[in-house]
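tl;dr need the bound structure. longer version: we got a ligand (pyridoxal-5'-phosphate) that a collaborator sent over and nobodys looked at where it sits. i said id run it. heres the input, straight from their email, havent touched it
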Amino acid sequence: MNLSERDQAVNWHPYTQMKTAGNAIPIVKGQGVYLFDDQGKKYIDAVSSWWVTLHGHSHPYIAQKVFEQLTTLEQVIFAGFTHEPAIRLSENLLKLLPENQQKVFYSDNGSTAVEVALKMCIQFAYNQGKEKTKILAFENAYHGDTFGAMSVSGRSVWTKPFGEMLFEVIFIDTPTSENLENLKKIIKNNADDIACFIYEPLVQGAAGMLMHNPEDLSELMKFCREQEILMIQDEVFTGFGRTGKLFAADYFSEKPDIMCFSKGLTGGTMPMGITTCSKEIFNAFLSEDKYKTLFHGHSFTANPLACTAALASMELLLNEETQEKINLISKKHSEFSRTLEINPKVENIRQMGTILAWDFKTEHGTSYFNTIGKLLYEEFLNKGIIMRPLGNVMYLVPPYCITSQELDFIYLAILEVLEGV
Ligand SMILES: *Cc1c(COP(=O)(O)O)cnc(C)c1O
């Protein structure tokens, strides 16, 4: 049996209808922007392997640092013990975040970072003898697949089988200059019951790269602050340069109370989640009363290897060279947008920094289940490019190591595919 057949015999893949899915492509090697399959064919990873890879695959600097750590200290319980990689990572990360972010809580992935954030907010109220159990979130939000994260995500086919078991959330539209006053009214009417507002800042990734503008979200954040509603800014996708700035937070003057990170945190090399919070949140858990403790933790909390990978990745990210590459990608994307604008098969072109998205015009409308996605996916694979349309939404989220020529190669392929279908 070849690798695909052996895989099919034993593995159950994520977000995959296993009855109709074709064979998974065995990848045997990753290098920079490329992935290589078992037949030696190479693919440009234009989606950063589900939005995680920042500096390219198998980056030698990150590999070296992780190897050194692996032979020094690979894991240690993080209750009662600590280690330098976690201390340095927290120090370095907090320096880059809004100055009200003062404490770092480690977990394993984006979903768990969100779970921790939700627990912090709900228990923040509980510890002060208040009962606030409703959550405010955006329609079409995606915050992960564990139950809490699923609860605060927009209701969809993904959440449908669990509908009855998800907790109570007030969903509002993302802000525009037209609907802002109405959104404020909804918030004001429920303010006393709302434990927190959770949102993906600027880009709703999984919803199909939907974007809203910084001024409108800023305004909404200011209003939540006035209403004393805690804010959880989920930067699991937008963090670490994707939006053109280091964090989406850099677009706003108002500061969230809590922030969530994962995906690009380790440069996409290893799973890790981080939830940061303000002094006020942290202090609400300080007490002689043991019941006020945040009883949450994962076996691999602050794993030293993942911390080391994150430290190395952040070092690379802050390099002048990487910052220039981020600017280059943003600039080239906006140039390509102008070419797309005149393409009759394209609509709703949108860009935020290194993230470029548009809708493929179809008579069936925009939806995750639009079958054009599968067709486009295969067209691009044939051309040696990994793009993974969300239904008829096509997007690019390339690793920052991509060159100008490689971007041109992708842009040309996009025009050819659009021409052909
Ligand atoms: C991917 C994602 C998550 C979930 O992260 P996982 O590591 O897949 O659990 C949460 N929030 C946002 C905004 C995401 O894009």
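gonna send this back to them w/ a short note. DSSP finds 13 helices and 16 strands in the chain.
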